Amino acid sequence: MNNTRRTRFLISQSDNRKSKIQNPKWILLATILLATISPARAQQPGKIPRICILSAGTAQLPYIEAFRQALKGLGYVEGKTLLVEWRHAGGKVEQLPALAADCSRIQVDVIVATRTPAIYAAAQATKTIPIVMVGSGDPVAEGIVAGLARPGGNVTGLAMLGPELNGKRLELLKETFPKVSRVALLRGPETRLHILKDIETAARSLRLGLLPVVVGSAPELKRDFEAATKGRAQAILTLSQPFTTEHRTQVLELAAKNRLPAMYERNDFVEAGGLMSYGVNLVDLYRRAAIYVDKILRGTKPADLPVEQPMKFEFIINLKAAKQIGLTIPPNVLVRANRVIK
Question: How far is CA 259 from CA 321, 323, 324, in A?
């Protein structure tokens, strides 16, 4: 083929390609192909973040629900853009190490541990997976974090100031019932020594006798209350721990049956029929935990997130419970309550 003929052949081929490309049928076909390929590439599954919620009790609604709703508000869709594993000990604290180890084994992106026993178990199970704690009484004293401003390590989250508030709870109990001189302390066997010492110090300053009652078995709970009344206890301070939380209904019923005014840490005890509570707003606490999870999933290291302490506390009184055991709440105490259940 001479140069002239070859040039004409190439021009002809080029014109044919050009005409095909400009042909509407070819344009439509190309569009369909692109539409088929692009979404396939966009839908290639990436790594969906996964979290594990570790609790000494059962699923604690409405607190867990508040946490889930907060995550939803931050743009997470459970089951689609976020996977959630649940590990609950049902009040059996001895199961927590195995459950925490399981959270670590399945390599979740974040462990959300609620209350000190679960937080401690998670911290022992892993030093690499980020842990967001919810409701630790004193994480520094427990050795969970190095400090509040600089937690260090893989643990951060929200403290609850439980131990520090027990003195205030006793003070409110004494102010409401001035004739009370002896208080039964309803606690689990896992209560830390420094917490007991703080409560004993507060009781002495208020000139209150303290009768420790260790609970840990549902069948023996009735006998525990009988021991409190035989020990001349006139009121009860109940620590919010896995056993008392898991057997909340029974605790409330026995307090009413023995006509013992009781102060609780958590507002859900009062909402379920208890007399009084003083503590943090747990729904708000769990909402805040979602923000920590979000920050960590976006790349912030736990060591760079200061532990948050609550600034607001709620004093709640249930007048129905007071009436049930024949008690009158003084007006000066009622006006101090953030909420009164009638």
Answer: 10, 11, 8
